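Here is one chain, start to finish.
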Amino acid sequence: MDLTFVGTLDHGTVLDAVDEIGPLVRAPEVAAAWSQESALPGMTVGGLTRHLVSQPETAVDFLGIPVPAEAPRPSLLAYAASWDWLDAPVGHEANISIRDEFNAMGRAGARDSVEALDSAAARLPAALASAGPLTFVPWQQVAIPTEDFLVVRLMEIVVHADDLAVSVGLPTPRFADAAVEPVTRLLLALASRRHDQPALVRALSRAERGGPISAF
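Its structure:
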């Protein structure tokens, strides 16, 4: 059975998650470390912040794109399998291009990222209210269920908020269970692609035998 969040995700969860990252993006510690390397090798704190902010921006932009009738409609996990960065090492072109793009965007400065977040947050309620059942993703030229698209955005927000907080020595934002639960389910499903069943069971149940397990 494939993973989907159709009919189970409250769109308001995304609004709450975006609100939750506001204080972190505005934190003086983030601005002070802007040009320093973040917890992600090669990505500056500014680039990482801009990447985090781009998640609600992407939601606003993509929710408003008409869905082409001919667009393929893969399942969530089939869609995830098409991400060229998912199984790529840090030094792979797929990851380097993301790093370089957001490092360049981050050079506009901390105020630019705060303004981008505020703009996306202001436009997001209307975008969610008018969203249809499918969202077109131009990166892969596919249409996926809107709730699944939003959970991917939540995953990016939750994961990169932690990356950013760790990068500057601040507490990681505490997201609502309604956001963390679908993110955890998606991460577990992605981790199961990389690790066999015994490794997953041990990591989740036995501290004395469990090894490191990651989705990416």
